[in-house]
Every structure is written in C-alpha cells, then in structure tokens.
Specification:
Layout (H helix, E strand, L loop, with lengths): L3 E4 L3 H24 L5 E4 L2 E4 L2 H23 L7 H19 L7 H15 L9 H18 L5 H4 L5 E2 L13 H9 L15 H29 L1 H11 L1 H6 L4 H27 L1 E2 L6 H14 L5 H19 L8 H4 L3 H16 L4 H9 L3 E4 L14 E2 L5 E2 L6 H8 L1
Helix pairs in contact: 2-8, 2-11, 2-12, 2-13, 3-4, 3-5, 3-11, 4-11, 8-9, 9-11, 12-13, 13-15
Length: 417
C-alpha cells in the first residue's frame, strides 16, 4: 500500500486534521453517553468496569502527567514529586470549596499561581543537582506531603488524617444544556440505540455528564497551552536544554530561568489535575497523594510516551483502568486461578511496563505513530516552502509538491522571458 504524504500547511493537511479531530470528538461523545453510569464490558467471562467516574479520574491524571511531560519529557529533568503539587491543588480546592463556598473551577484562580510559585521555589535545587540526586530530592517531597497535611497545626484547613470533604458542594448541569435531547437522539439510532440507555437522563447522570464536559474542556485548554508553548521561543529553549545543556548555554539560553519556569509550569499543571481530582471524588485525603501516586505518574509518562503530548492521556488511561481491570480478571485460559487472586493489578501494570520498555521503548504513542506512518506521513515544510527531508523538493503556490528538476509554471515563464 502506497504511503500518502501530507505536507503541513496545505489544504489537504488541514482537512485531514479537521477530520481527525471531528472523529475524536464524536467518539468521546458516544463513549460519554454510552457509559454515563456505572457499566461493564464482558470479555472472556470477565466483567470490566468502564464508567464516567474512572474516565474523569483519568483526565485529572492526564493533566498531572502533562506537567511531567514538560519537566521530564521536554526539559530533561528527572523530577518525581508531581504528587506533591497534585495534592496541593486538591487541598487548596477542597479548602476553598468547603470553607469558603467557592465553585470548583473558580479555585483555579488561586491554585494555578500558588502551585506555580511553589514549584519555582522548590525547583531551585534543580539548578544545583541533576539526575538521580534530583530524583531523590523530588521523591522526598512526594513522601513528606501526606505527613504535612496531617499536622495538627493544619488540621483546621486540611482535616487531618480524615481528609477534607467537599460533599456539600455538588456539580449541577445547567438547564440550557440539551443533554436529554442528545440522549434521546442517540437512543433512536438503529441497532446501536440500546447502548445509550432508555429515556431521559436522571439528575445524577446529567451532573456526571456536565462534569465530564468541564473536565474535557479544561484538559483541552491545558494541552493547547502546552502545545503552543513548545512551538514558541521558550519552548525551543526548553527542548534545547534537554538535548544539549552545554550547547543551550553557549547559544545564550538562561539555563537557571528556563529550568525554574519549566518546574513552575509542571507544578501548575499538577495543581490543576488535583483540582479536577477532588472535584470528582469529593474529598482530599492524604492517602490519595503518596509517593506511590508520584511513581504511577511516571509509569503513565513512560507507558504513554516520554516527550509526546498525547502520551499523557494514554498513560493516564493505563494507570487508571489497567490495575482495576487486572484485579477484576477471574479467569484466563491456561492460567491457574490462584495466580489471579490477590493484588494482581499492580503486578500486571509492572509487567506491562517491562514489556513495553523492550517492545515499545518510545511508549504506546510512538508505536502508534510508526504504524500510522505506513499509511500517512506528515511532511513539514520550511519557511521558504521546501519540504523537510527533501532539500530539492518545493511547493508551488497551490501547495503541490514540485519534484527535483521540475519547474513551476512561474519558473518556466521566467526562464522563457
């Protein structure tokens, strides 16, 4: 099968992007209405839960892992303390919502700058240490966070060992949102309508759907902001530090400022993830922000793909669903049942990580991109219209590729004249 090349900036490339995004949005909407309540799929006699609650948790984790992408994947700093900022954002949100009656998303006005500043301050050790030493320092931050929120002096704000609940504040879907109309339209689809329930949505289902929509919007904004940052001058400086720190310094990049800002941005994203998490679960508990959560974030980063934005979402889905599904597996062909009893979720997640390290060292996203390259290849072009990787290939005014040795009609007219 011939590989189709799409050159960035051409109408064909833009149409392909629009089609891809449209299909993705349709798939997300269909999933949301099909699994708006607790549901399960049956495979091989095993039932696996697939619900909106877990998907919302995955989106919260995805924002936190996106912060790790910035500091580890693009800056090259081995930081393992993302659960510290994830918990900080969660507790700030819980305190503002429970004690001051703030709306959940309004707390981001305080959570984002607070986590950004804390991240910059705690990121100062990155200017002196690196590698495993930086990993130990940041992992220590993650380890001490549960003890900090349990202090008696902070019990008034954090709730101590019992956590800080926000159960009095509930998410209510607005009246102008046509959720019932969409659900009824999907239920009328032949053959597939049965998967979207029966009749209008209940108040609880509408609240879950509205929460899902808000999470998706916040997630999309975070991804959009980071993607634009990476294309900007500071983003190029961040990647230059990762690729060659000495060369970046020689080129005039302020290493101290750039590293500190990357830590601050990663911390702010971790705080946003914590806000989404407590918005879903309704409580900020110290046991939800241990160093194990920090390690799970790194696992999600590696499994999804280090240095890939979409890898953050893929990794989040893996660390949310795989342990739960593994624990729900009761029978597998040629596998003794006693091997499936006990804490198999973490075991299977660890085995999956080892396998992916050897089979897909770049993560799931890198493997998908290699597979996609067999059918569609995206070719960037330079400012002069040349196609990257093909120095003798250019584009005419209509965006068509001109092979080496061929002249455009304009060039032929010029030569004739």
């Amino acid at each position: 099968m011939a590989v189709r090349e799409l050159v960035k900036g051409t109408p064909q490339y833009r149409n392909w992007r629009v089609l891809t995004v449209t299909l993705m949005v349709i798939a997300v909407v269909l999933f949301a209405f099909a699994y708006i309540d607790t549901a399960a799929i049956e495979i091989g006699g095993n039932k696996y839960n697939l619900s909106m609650i877990r998907m919302n948790k995955a989106m919260a984790f995805a924002v936190a892992i996106l912060g790790l992408q910035v500091v580890i994947g693009y800056t090259g700093q081995l930081a393992l303390g993302q659960s510290f900022f994830f918990g900080t954002g969660a507790y700030l949100t819980a305190w503002l919502v429970a004690d001051h009656s703030w709306p959940y998303l309004a707390t981001l006005v305080l959570v984002v700058p607070a986590c950004f500043l804390i991240g910059m301050i705690l990121g100062l050790p990155a200017l002196r240490v690196r590698g495993l030493y930086l990993a130990l320092v940041t992992l220590g931050m993650a380890a001490v966070f549960p003890s900090i929120v349990k202090l008696d002096s902070l019990k008034e704000y954090t709730g101590g060992s019992g956590g800080k609940p926000t159960s009095n504040s509930k998410v209510v879907a607005p009246d102008w949102l046509p959720l019932d109309q969409i659900a009824e339209a999907l239920q009328k689809i032949p053959l597939f309508g049965q998967y979207f329930g029966d009749g209008p949505l209940s108040d609880r289902e509408e609240a879950r759907m509205w929460t899902f929509i808000l999470f998706a919007i916040v997630l999309a904004i975070c991804f959009w902001l980071v993607a634009n940052l990476l294309k900007s001058r500071p983003g190029r400086a961040i990647r230059a530090i990762r690729d060659n720190e000495t060369g970046a310094a020689v080129s005039g990049i302020d290493l101290a400022m750039t590293k500190t800002l990357s830590f601050g941005l990663a911390s702010a994203l971790g705080g946003v993830g914590g806000t989404l998490y407590v918005m879903e679960v309704g409580i900020a508990s110290p046991d939800d922000f241990t160093q194990l959560v920090a390690i799970n974030f790194v696992v999600g980063l590696v499994v999804g793909g280090v240095g890939t934005l979409s890898g953050a979402m893929v990794g989040a889905l893996v660390i949310v669903f795989i342990p739960d599904w593994a624990s729900s597996t009761e029978s597998v062909a040629f596998v003794p049942e006693r091997w499936l009893s006990g804490p198999t979720g973490s075991l299977i997640l660890g085995v999956l990580l080892i396998i992916l390290t050897f089979i897909l060292p770049g993560g799931i996203v890198a493997g998908f991109r290699r597979w996609k390259a067999r059918f569609v290849r995206i070719v960037p072009r330079g400012p002069d219209g040349s196609v990257a990787g093909q120095p003798d290939t250019f584009l005419d005014a209509d965006g068509n590729v001109i092979a080496a040795g061929e002249a455009s009609p304009q060039e032929e007219l010029t030569t004739t004249a």
